[in-house]
Each structure stands twice: as C-alpha cells, then as structure tokens.
Amino acid sequence: MKMYTATIPGSALKVRSRASYYARQKRLFVVVVILVAIIPLLFISWTASHFYQKSWLNKTTVELTSLANSRREIIDLFLDSQENILAGYAELYDLAWLRTPGNLEKLFQAMNRQGVIVDLGLIAQDGSHCNYVGPFAEDLRDKNYADARWFAEVMQSGRYISDVFTGYRGVPHFIVAVTDPTRSWVLRATINSELFNALLASAEVGPGGDAFILNHQGELQTPSRLGLTALPAGEKGLLATGGDLTIHHSQGALYATTGMKNNAWTLVLKTDINTSLADFYRARQRDHLIIACAALLILGVSTFLVRSMMNKVEDADQQRMVLYDRIRNSEKMALVGRMAANVAHEINNPLQIIGDQAGWLDELLAEEDPASLKNTEEYRTAFAKIKAQVKRASTITHRLLGFSRSTDGLKAPANINTLVEETVSFLEKEAANHRIAIRRNLDPALPAITTDSAQLQQVFLNILNNAFDAIGNDGAVTISTSRGGGQLAVEFADNGPGLSEEGLKKVFEPFFTTKKAGSGTGIGLAISYSIVERLGGGIEVRNGRQGGCVFRVHFPLPA
Predict the structure, then answer these.
(1) Which of 132, 179, 322, 438 could disulfide-pair with 183, CB 3.0 to 4.6 Å?
(2) Do 538 and 463 meet the contact criterion of CB atoms below 8 Å apart?
C-alpha cells in the first residue's frame, strides 16, 4: 500500500503567544518614540541652561571685577584725600595757633563743609588732649592717648588711618591722624561712618549680595547688608588675597576681593548666584514643565499611533496565520484524500470477496440437510452479521472515495432550499425516533447557485448526523438559509452541549471526534470541509449564545 506525506514549514506553524509578543512590541515602539522625541528636547534645554549660566557667570565676573576696582579706587582716594588735607594743615599751622581758642573750630568748619568728619582733636606729644572740637568733648576731656595703638602708630610713621574701634567714646569709629614735621603733636579727625559706609552701600551686587570691608583679623570695618557681625568660617579664605583682585566661586556665591589702604583692609563684594538667577531658575522650571507636558502629549499620540499601526500589523499577521492554517488544512485534506482513495481501493476488494463468500456459504447452507446440522440458525446469524459488517465497511470506504473524488465535472444549477428539504427527508424517521424536532427557517427568495447537489447533500447529512449524535434524545435542530454581504448561507443550529475551545479548533481535522470510542470515525466533517472548499465555499463552526453548536456553510452569490 502506498503512503503519502506532506511537509509544512515549521516557522509558519510555530505556536507562540502572539498577544504578549505584540504587547512587548507596542511598549518598545512607544519607548523608542518617546526617547527619540524627548532626548533632543532635554539636550537642548540642558545646553541652553548651561550656556546661559556660564554666560551669566562670565558677565557677572567682569562686572564684579570692574565694580571692585572702582570702589577700591574711590575709597582709597577718599582716605588719601582726608589724610592729605590733615597733613597740609599740620604743616601750615603750628601748635600755638591750634591751641588758641576758636582756631581749631575754624579749621574744623573748613574741613567739614561736606560733613566728612565728625570731630577734630589736637593731641600733645605726651598723649594729652590740647584742644578738641566735636560732640564728645565731655567723654574725651582729660583723656590721655599715650598708650593707644593708633597714637603709637602715628608717632612712628607720621600718618595713620586706624581700624574701626570704640575707644573712650564707646562708639565704633575710625580716625585719620597726622603729626607735624617734628612729630611733637598730632592732629586727629574722626571720619563720618555713615558717609564712608555710603561709598560701599551704593555698590550694585544684586539681590542677596553683600559688600563690606575686613581688616587683617577678619573683623568687619563696614556694616554687612546681610546683618553679619563676624566673617563666617567658610569665608575666612577671602582674607588671603595678597592685595590683588581675586574672584572666588564657592557655596552658591561669587566673591570679588581686593586689598586696599596699603593692603591693611580687604574689600569684599559678594553676589548670590541662586538669588540672582531666581528668574532663570523659574523659567527653567517652566521649560521642564513644558517638556513634561510635551512628553505626556508625545506619549499619548505615540501610544495611539503605535497601537493603531501594530493592531493593523497584528491583524495582517493573524490573517497570514489563518491563511497558513487553511493551506495546512488543505494539504492535510489532500494527503488524507490520497490516503483515503488508496485505503478504499485496497480494502474494497477483500470486502467484496468476504461478502461474496459469506453469501455463497449462506446459499450452500440452504442446500444442506437440516437434520445433519446442529447449529443451522447460529450459522445463518453469523453470516448475516458478516454481511452487515461488510456493508458497514463498504459504506465507510465509499465515504473515503467520496472524500478524495473530484467534483469539477458534476456542477449544475441547484436551489439550496430544495437540497435542504431533500436531505431532511432522509433523516425525518431517525429524528422522530429520537424525539428531535427539525425546524426550518428558509428564505424563499434564494437564487440558484451552480454546485454539485449530491456532494452538498452529503455535507448537510454529515452536519445533521453530528447534530443528532450531539443531542441524543429530546432536542431540536434549526436550519436557516439567508443571503447578505455577497454570500448565500445555510446554518444548522442544535441545542446540544456545544464544543470546547479545542474542539472548535480541531473539529474539521481528519479522525478528530468527540464521540465515544467505536461510535465514529472522525472523517465526516473533514470530508464535508473538503467538499465545501472544492465547491468554492466555506464552512465555519461556533457555539450558540444559548448553547449548542452552529455550523454555517456559505457560498458566494452568483454575479
């Protein structure tokens, strides 16, 4: 006996989780789209932010440098001018003239037309007050400055500008003092602190900035705008400037420091970076918010587009898989058909011989003497059973031949309603025996189609037989014909138990059956599927909404 095989590519039939695969692809595409769209925006935002901050830092550094130089020059010029004025008066007038009542007052008024100094004093070589003009006469009367540091400094160098100190008057102040050419007496002036501080207070260092002067010990010589009373530990390094102008960048602030008053003092200008860039930071936050909104918008749009495209790809893939399944099924049907033809041919001859021999033996038994045979009836019963089983086997082989037989030359115009009625007439008695009602819902206006009536009736018979087997007893089968969507359709709906998911997928496969062992061959619906395919139609199965199965056979309407 010949055997036939067919091969389907494994890649086309590989079973895998399509839903999870496409879900991963959708997520991947969405992530890629977002990254491609957002990363350039983030890069542009970061680049612009970095460039702006760097540009602002460079610009502020230049401005702070210029401001520090100009303030140093103004303050040094102010102090030098006060020192030179006092030195000029010390050279111009002698001690006797300055001691004379009223002369020191005249000199004070001449010097203080702009309110630069607070008081003016004349101190003898021994440190005693010789004369004084100013608001602290009572506090300084009979005071001796021989032990004061400033007095020693001026007597040694001839000129001296002090640090801020409280002294006898108990008020922070600083002085400018000079001696006469012979250093026998000292002319001392107290600088107006408010006027002096105003020279620094007008420095534009931005919001949150500060400007002050330090001595070598780090003590404030002018008030801090931020209310500092001492230099913070983190800013002690600002004193080590060496007198040159230096720019420091630390702790969120930008510092400009420079030496002044012959490097006895350090001028400090501070710009707070965070406060100065507050508007920029707010704008950057708005940019980040806009980017976040854009990311959400891109996420939504990309998700929608990707899902739309991937759904189309998934649908196309599913259609491809359905096509592969149909090709596989067609190849399987062709293979089974060739096998069926070969099997039927090989079996028919032995069956014919068995049937003929059983009939011949039955005829010979009739010629024998009944008296000489003990089990005549048993022989006749056995021969009858042999004939019945041979007939049953012959029916199966004829079905197999029908499965493999081409029907191209047997097509003719036929009315589907007529074919249904004829098929039902064959099964009415069997339906009555099992108390199964056959209901008809036929469209009387169906057009005729060109088909093989006998083969199509075999399909209807196979479907109805399967419906009867599924119902058993006491049920109903509804047969409906209709047309629509360019198709003519016949539906067979039973109220049996229906099929499982696996059964719905395999119901048209050869030798698949849900019947008990020995009750079915599993080729009836496979044959029906092959017949309908060859006739140019299609056959489908589904479970009914209220139970049972619904088989639908459809053909294209004639043009």
Answers:
(1) 179
(2) no
- CA nearest neighbour of 31 among 313, 304, 302, 314: 302
pTM of the model: 0.53
Question: What count of Cα atoms within 13 Å lies in the side-chain half-sphere of residue 132?
Answer: 17
Residue 275 included in any domain: no
pLDDT (tens digit, 9 = 90+) per residue, 121-144?
999 999 898 899 988 888 888 889
Return the ∠ at Cα 215 (arms to 209 and 216), rounded to 5°. Answer: 120
Q: Is residue 145 part of a domain?
A: yes
Q: Where are the beta strands (DSSP E) in 112-263?
A: 117-124, 129-133, 159-161, 175-179, 185-191, 210-214, 246-250, 253-260
Residue 523, SS3? coil
Query: 3-state SS of 286-341?
Result: HHHHHHHHHHHHHHHHHHHHHHHHHHHHHHHHHHHHHHHHHHHHHHHHHHHHHHHH
The DSSP output letter for 163 is P
Provide the 3-class DSSP secondary structure of residue 458: helix
Residue at a domain's end among 154, 172, 195? 195
pLDDT in tens, 421-443: 888 887 888 888 889 899 999 98
Using alpha carbons only, what angle is made at residue 331 by residues 325 and 337, rounded to the nearest 5 degrees?
A: 135
Which amino acid, one-letter code, is at 446? L
CATH number, domain of 168, equals 3.30.450.20
Domain boundary among 168, 195, 222: 195
Q: How confident is the model at residue 37 (pLDDT cuts 50, 70, 90)?
A: confident
**For residue 208, is it within any domain?**
no
How far apart (Å, rounded) are the C-alpha atoms in residues 454 and 411? 9
Domain-embedded: residue 521: yes
Pairwise CA distance, residues 160 & 148, whole Å: 13
User: Which pairing describes strands 487-494 and 475-484: parallel, antiparallel, or unpaired?
Assistant: antiparallel
Model confidence band, residue 337 (pLDDT cutoffs 50, 70, 90): low
- Residue in the structure block whose two tokens are 């006491």: 474
Q: Which two tokens stand for residue 417?
A: 């309603």
Rounded CA-CA distance 185/124 in Å is 5
The CATH number of the domain holding residue 549 is 3.30.565.10
Instruction: Convert the pLDDT of each residue in 211-231 to its tens digit.
Output: 888 888 888 888 888 888 777
Based on the structure, what is the number of domains in the chain? Answer: 2
Q: Are 340 and 401 in contact (CB under 8 A)?
A: yes
Residue 554 to residue 538: CA distance in whole angstroms? 5
Range of the domain at 512: 406-556
Task: Take residue 555 and report the two structure tokens written for it.
Answer: 């053909």
Where b means 16+ CB within 10 Å and e means fewer, 320-347 reads eeeeeeeeebeebbeebbebbbbbbeeb
Extract the runs of DSSP E, i.e. beta strands, from 231-374.
Answer: 246-250, 253-260, 265-272
519 CB burial (10 A radius; 0-12, 13-18, 19+): exposed
